[in-house]
Specification:
Elements: H1 3-12, E1 15-16, E2 25-29, E3 32-35, E4 37-40, H2 57-69, E5 74-76, H3 85-94, E6 103-108, H4 116-127, E7 132-140, H5 145-149, H6 153-162, E8 166-173, H7 177-184, E9 191-195, H8 198-203, H9 206-215, E10 220-223, H10 236-245, H11 251-259, E11 265-270, H12 275-286, H13 293-311, H14 319-322, H15 341-345, H16 352-362
Parallel strand pairs: 4-5, 4-11, 5-6, 6-7, 7-8, 8-9, 9-10, 10-11
Antiparallel strand pairs: 1-2, 2-3
Helix pairs in contact: 2-12, 3-4, 10-13, 11-12, 13-16
Length: 363
């Protein structure tokens, strides 16, 4: 069996069949099945623009109801989201549904309230819950490791887990791979949430962080799958490349489908603020197909080529082409044998081998 077939089988392992229009699910642990798409309650609709303005409850509840109706069962909030309003809203919005039909993720933020016992009790009250399914230390960085780990917070939350008030305990992370390894060695973490998307995969440390977690077989929750919205609104050349391949597909769907090719990811969070975003994402996650091997390679190579061209020909050593060096040798432009099969499948009849040859020479 070739590598592509192996990866395809691993991706599908544990994936649950879904009814038409329903988000697909994966088994997480202990028979718990989570929707591949999670609702992030950080960018809910507001009554007016601005920081910590009132949540538009009617519009936000419409999003939650649509998600629940289409199989989304993972809802992520935090103590500081929407200036403290997010938890209380989410608790009210989910209260009308059976408790076993959804999972709530919440986070302890040491900078907002260092008293972890007080913050946790406040969160249970805001959510109107007796327990929290997935609980995280929020936004760990290299500088905050000691603040989070050396003053009793993990021990307290592990005690709450033993008491049944927390089901799974983890952390969200915005630091270096070295710090990630140190944190993982301290406690028996159930899951970790990292920023992961195809931009950070090639132009950051996301791939290294992902591989560290895979080495230790720790389930991964993904935040910022579209790199803060950047991958949902690409500049001209990148947009044109994706439209040529699949004119009907949104740019955001490419970012999600890239992540769905990676084994070990439990939930991909999306901070959806509009119903059309919810509908588009649910359509993406209700379909079985992630990116094919051809789709995974060609758009990234062509996007890098376009970025290089728009950046100026003298910029030969820029990051626009440097990202390709991160690819395995057999998937770099120089590996193209010029067979022309990809050109035959391209709707625009692009001379892909010629582009591959030019990029190989530039590298």
């Amino acid at each position: 069996m070739n590598t592509a077939e192996n990866r395809g089988k691993e991706r599908e392992a544990g994936r649950q069949e879904a009814k038409e229009g329903q988000v697909r699910r994966r088994e997480f642990a202990d028979g718990v099945c989570l929707s591949e798409l999670g609702m992030g309650a950080m960018r809910l609709p507001q009554t007016e623009e601005g920081f910590a303005k009132p949540i538009d409850r009617a519009a936000a509840e419409e999003l939650i109801d649509y998600c629940m109706a289409h199989g989304v069962n993972y809802y992520d909030t935090a103590y500081i989201y929407h200036g403290g309003q997010s938890e209380a809203f989410l608790g009210r919005a989910l209260k009308k549904y059976p408790r076993e039909s959804y999972f709530v993720a919440d986070k302890f933020n040491v900078q907002a309230e260092p008293d972890f016992e007080k913050q946790f009790e406040d969160q249970l009250s805001r959510l109107q819950l007796d327990s929290i399914d997935f609980y995280l230390l929020h936004g760990m960085t290299d500088k905050l490791v000691s603040d989070y780990l050396d003053h009793g917070a993990p021990e307290y939350f592990l005690k709450q887990k033993k008491a049944g008030k927390i089901r799974y305990f983890g952390f969200s992370f915005h630091g270096s791979p070295e710090a990630l390894r140190r944190i993982l060695s301290r406690y028996p973490w159930d899951f970790v949430q990292i920023q992961l998307n195809y931009y950070d995969w090639f132009h950051g440390t996301a791939r290294e962080q992902y591989e560290i977690l895979r080495e230790q077989n720790i389930p991964i929750m993904v935040m910022e799958p579209a790199h803060g919205g950047m991958l949902a609104d690409l500049p001209g050349k990148g947009r044109e490349t994706l439209l040529r391949l699949h004119p009907e597909a949104s740019q955001a769907s490419w970012a999600f489908r890239f992540l769905r090719t990676l084994p070990g990811i439990a939930v991909i969070l999306s901070g959806m603020s509009k119903l059309e975003q919810v509908k588009d994402n649910i359509q993406t996650f209700s379909e079985p197909a992630a990116l094919t091997e051809q789709e995974l390679d060609i758009p990234f190579l062509l996007a890098a080529y376009n970025e290089y061209r728009t950046g100026g020909e003298k910029d030969l050593s820029s990051w626009r082409l440097a990202r390709l060096a991160a690819l395995p040798e057999e998937r770099q432009p120089s590996a193209c044998i010029g067979c022309g099969q990809c050109t035959a499948h391209c709707p625009q009849g692009l001379d892909v081998p010629a582009y591959m040859k030019e990029m190989a020479e530039l590298m």
